[in-house]
């Protein structure tokens, strides 16, 4: 999903330069489910090498949800976004129980983890449902 919610006026995604503009180093990691059994997806090293290639991205990356196959799915959909508070001098790296750096705390309603890709990637997907 593209970050267009008003939450992203206050929070920033370091993988993006702006709406639909990714940092040059950011790489999509949502794979098409039909290719998860391929040998390329069997190790993090092979998967990374494959996704660094244009052809590999075209074959293996899932596109944005709700788009047709002709909508260049190899541009990818990111699962590894890190949302951090854009306070000058604050890197967003903190313990979960540390206080917020400003006076407007957000409340986490639910935390979920997905370990289904644990054997093929070095990522652990963490989802936070925030009250905004």
Automatic annotation (TrEMBL):
Top-rank taxon, per record: Eukaryota
BP terms from Gene Ontology: sphingomyelin metabolic process
GO CC term, one of those recorded: membrane
A molecular function (GO) term: sphingomyelin phosphodiesterase activity
InterPro entries per the UniProt record, alphabetical: Sph/SMPD2-like (IPR038772)
Protein name as it appears in the record: Uncharacterized protein
Species whose genome carries this gene: Macaca fascicularis
């Amino acid at each position: 999903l593209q970050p267009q919610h008003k939450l992203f006026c206050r929070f920033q995604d370091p993988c993006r330069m702006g709406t639909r503009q990714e940092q040059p180093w950011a790489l999509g990691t949502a794979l098409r489910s039909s290719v998860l059994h391929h040998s390329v997806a069997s190790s993090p090293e092979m998967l990374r090498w494959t996704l660094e290639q244009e052809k590999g991205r075209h074959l293996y990356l899932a596109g944005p949800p709700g788009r047709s196959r002709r909508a260049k799915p190899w541009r990818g959909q990111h699962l590894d976004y890190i949302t951090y508070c854009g306070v000058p001098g604050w890197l967003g790296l903190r313990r979960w129980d540390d206080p917020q750096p400003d006076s407007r705390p957000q409340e986490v309603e639910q935390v979920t983890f997905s370990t289904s890709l644990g054997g093929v990637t070095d990522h652990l997907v963490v989802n936070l449902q925030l009250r905004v």
